[in-house]
């Protein structure tokens, strides 16, 4: 396949990527929020975008169905990064991966006493590694969304989730007690595509890098 396919998710990542794409003279011909198309042509005949679930972006790039992709560090960590080259932190969609509990729950005390914690999260791999590093025994409960509910109804003692403003935690009487990592979105590339299409991809990488540096 000649031309470049870029995988990204709609919502905040698409919105925050639009200015970077424009810097590289890439303008989508449709808006993914209003169009039902999953393949978006652009002003450039050699560049198209595909719209996939945020957590599916690394998979499309890994298998070469997309040459490039844009995915959060949270998603890349869970995926593992096999077959992916991660040349650039785009510094967009920034937030923090945190441990949160119900207000009043004695998290530090539970940790100190060696209690076994029930932790609900979409980010099972990240949570497993975090608590293993701390030497805390956990039972992980996989959820697909609305993690904030779990401690309120007794499903879990703690959650591992992304936090930006903290408003969702506050609205649900939860408090963040520990930061696991800072998260932002990365440009990812299929390793084979990067070799075969270096001439097309490298100038894009250079423009994205310059746009990120300018802020
Ligand atoms: P989805 O609901 O499909 O996971 P989102 O648009 O909520 O998609 O999240 C896409 C990506 O945006 C996440 O993988 C993460 O990197 C980033 N993200 C998620 N939540 C936040 C947030 N509160 N603030 C900033 N970035 C976020
Ligand atoms: Mg979301």
How does this structure look, described?
It is a single chain. The protein folds into two domains: 4-93 and 184-214, 3-Layer(aba) Sandwich (D-Maltodextrin-Binding Protein, domain 2); 95-182, D-Maltodextrin-Binding Protein, domain 2 (3-Layer(aba) Sandwich). Helices cover 33% and strands 33% of the residues. The protein contains eight helices and nine strands. Strand 2 (39-41) and strand 3 form a beta hairpin. The longest helix is centred in the last third of the chain and has 17 residues, at 198-214. The site of adenosine-5'-diphosphate has 16 residues, from helix 1, helix 3, strand 5 and strand 9.
Brief write-up:
The chain is 33% helix and 33% strand.
What form results from the Cα inertia axes?
A: elongated
Distance between the termini: 33 Å
Strand proportion: 25-35%
Q: Which fold name fills CATH's third level, the topology of the largest domain?
A: D-Maltodextrin-Binding Protein, domain 2
Q: Give the H and E element order.
A: EHEEHEHEHEHEEHEHH
Tell me the CATH superfamily of the largest domain: Periplasmic binding protein-like II
Helix count, DSSP H or I runs of 4 or more residues:
8
Radius of gyration: 19 Å
Query: Judging by the overall fold, what is the CATH architecture of the largest domain?
Result: 3-Layer(aba) Sandwich
Neighbour order of strands in the largest sheet = 2-3-1-4-9-5-8-6-7
Bound molecules: adenosine-5'-diphosphate, magnesium ion
Oligomer: single chain
Q: How many domains would you count in the coordinates?
A: 2
Write down the CATH class of the largest domain: Alpha Beta
Main β-sheet description:
9 strands, mixed
Q: Which regions have little confidence, pLDDT < 50, spanning 5+ residues? A: none
Percent helix: 25-40%
Structural class: alpha/beta
